[in-house]
C-alpha cells in the first residue's frame, strides 16, 4: 500500500515505464465511453479510480443511478474527494472489496489489472459484487507478438524496470482465459488506440458475469 502512496505523490523512480499516474487524452476517453454507454447503468463501481476523473465521467451518464470509486491509495482518494465531492469514494484493495454480494450492475477497471498480483482473486471479487449478467469493462496493455518483439529488442529495461508499477502483462487470449476462469464471458473487444494502425497500444474488453464463482 505504501508503494501506491508514493505513486500518487509522484515520488517513484522515473527510470522505467508508467512511474506516474497517466493523463487522459480526449480520444482515449471518447473511445472507452462510446463502447460502454449501452451497457453502463444502475449502480456502478469504478475500481482503481485514482483521482476520480473517470468516475466522474461515469457519474455524468443519464443511465447511471449511483457511482462509487474505490482505490487502494489514501492519497488518490483524498485527491478524488476534493475534486468530486458529490461522489462516494472508498479506500480498499480490489482483492477484498467492502461491498455486499451482487450489489452492482456495472464495474469499470481502467488501467488497473496490470497492477494486481493476485489476478484470480481480483476477478473473483468482481464476480462476487456484480449482479447476475452484470458487465465489467477492462482496459490494459496488449502484448501482441509484434509488440513483444519490439520491447525485447529496444525497450526491455525501460518496460520491465524493477520499480515499475506494471507487474502483469496480458495478451488478448490470456485476458479472456482469466475472465472465463472466474465466471465471465467476453462479448466485446476493441483496440485501445494503435501504433500507425499496425498494432494496438492497448485493449478494451467488455465481459458479462454468466455464473457465480465461490470464493
Give an overview of the whole structure.
This protein has 215 residues and is α/β, with parallel strands linked by helices. Helices cover 33% and strands 27% of the residues. The protein is built from seven helices and nine strands. It has helices spanning 2-8, 26-36, 53-59, 74-83, 119-129, 145-159, 172-181, and strands spanning 42-47, 64-71, 88-91, 104-110, 130-141, 184-191, 194-195, 199-200, 202-209. The strands form two sheets. It has a seven-stranded mixed beta sheet, with helices on both faces. Strands 7-8 form a two-stranded antiparallel ribbon. Helix 4 (74-83) links the parallel strand 2 and strand 3 (88-91). The relative contact order is 0.17. The model has no long low-confidence stretch (mean pLDDT 95).
Order of helices and strands: HHEHEHEEHEHHEEEE
Q: How many strands, what sense, and barrel or not for the largest sheet? A: 7 strands, mixed
* Quantity of strands, as a count: 9
Terminal Cα span:
23 Å
Task: Please tell me what the overall shape is.
Answer: globular
The pLDDT mean sits at 95
Strand content: 25-35%
Class of secondary structure makeup: alpha/beta
What's the topology here?
Blueprint: H1 2-8, H2 26-36, E1 42-47, H3 53-59, E2 64-71, H4 74-83, E3 88-91, E4 104-110, H5 119-129, E5 130-141, H6 145-159, H7 172-181, E6 184-191, E7 194-195, E8 199-200, E9 202-209
Parallel strand pairs: 1-2, 1-4, 2-3, 4-5
Antiparallel strand pairs: 5-9, 6-9, 7-8
Amino acid at each position: 500500500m505504501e508503494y501506491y502512496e508514493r505513486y500518487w505523490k509522484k515520488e517513484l523512480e522515473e527510470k522505467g515505464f508508467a512511474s506516474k499516474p497517466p493523463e487522459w487524452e480526449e480520444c482515449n476517453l471518447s473511445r472507452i465511453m462510446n463502447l460502454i454507454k449501452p451497457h453502463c447503468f444502475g449502480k456502478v463501481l469504478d475500481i482503481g479510480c485514482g483521482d476520480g476523473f473517470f468516475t466522474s465521467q461515469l457519474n455524468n451518464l443519464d443511465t447511471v443511478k449511483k457511482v462509487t470509486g474505490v482505490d487502494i491509495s489514501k492519497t488518490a482518494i483524498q485527491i478524488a474527494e476534493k475534486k468530486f465531492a458529490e461522489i462516494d469514494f472508498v479506500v480498499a484493495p480490489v482483492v477484498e472489496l467492502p461491498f455486499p454480494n451482487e450489489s452492482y450492475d456495472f464495474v469499470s477497471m481502467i488501467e488497473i489489472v496490470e497492477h494486481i498480483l493476485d489476478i484470480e482473486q481480483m476477478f473473483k471479487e468482481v464476480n462476487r459484487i456484480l449482479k447476475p449478467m452484470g458487465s465489467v469493462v477492462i482496459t490494459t496493455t496488449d502484448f501482441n507478438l509484434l509488440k513483444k518483439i519490439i520491447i525485447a529488442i529496444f525497450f526491455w529495461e525501460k518496460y520491465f524496470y524493477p520499480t515499475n508499477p506494471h507487474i502483469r502483462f496480458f495478451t488478448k487470449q490470456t485476458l479472456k482465459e482469466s475472465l472465463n476462469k472466474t465466471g465471465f464471458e467476453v462479448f466485446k473487444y476493441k483496440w485501445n488506440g494503435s501504433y500507425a494502425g499496425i498494432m494496438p497500444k492497448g485493449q478494451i474488453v467488455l465481459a458479462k458475469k454468466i455464473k457465480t464463482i465461490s470464493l
